[in-house]
Design brief:
By secondary structure, the chain is of the alpha+beta class. The chain has one domain: Pathogenesis-related Protein p14a (3-Layer(aba) Sandwich), CATH 3.40.33.10. Strands 1-3-4-2 form a 4-stranded mixed beta sheet, sandwiched between helices. The radius of gyration is 14 Å and the shape is globular.
């Protein structure tokens, strides 16, 4: 099972319990997620906005996905898809995105940076940067 499918399976279990339909993996959202995960890893930052200030909505539009609603979850440091998914589910703000029944499509990516440096005041580097994008067409 791919990392994206593993994360989405966990999310869809939680969504089903909340009465939401399943998320579907979308290639354009996968590309938007991968772009941001890679950017965070390579440019040593952790946040929803890129270093140039552009936000996830712009990344999604750049991939050609036309949306009515869009949201993004990010995480760093988790070594597995399950760890990332569980951390999102245990966070109220992230869980809100996951359980928003209006959001139908998703893309998930992780970037690994072997020679990562500590950022954001952390004593250790993250190495793993996770992004999940949600959207409603």
């Amino acid at each position: 099972m791919t990392i994206a499918k593993e994360v989405v399976a966990i999310m869809n279990t939680a969504r089903a319990k909340a009465g939401c339909g399943p998320l579907k993996i979308n290639s354009k959202l996968m590309a938007a997620a991968k772009t941001h995960a890679t950017n965070m890893a390579e440019k040593d930052f952790f946040g929803h906005a890129n270093r140039d200030g552009s936000k996830f909505s712009k990344r999604v539009k750049k991939q050609g996905y036309k949306y009515r609603m869009v949201a993004e979850n990010i995480a760093a440091g988790q070594k597995s898809a399950r760890e990332a998914a569980i951390s999102w589910l245990n966070s109220a703000g992230h869980r809100k995105n996951i359980l928003n029944c209006k959001l139908k499509d998703t893309g998930v990516a992780v970037a690994y940076q072997a020679d990562d440096r500590p950022i954001d005041g952390n004593s250790k580097p993250y190495h793993y940067y996770w992004v999940q994008v949600f959207a409603a067409p």
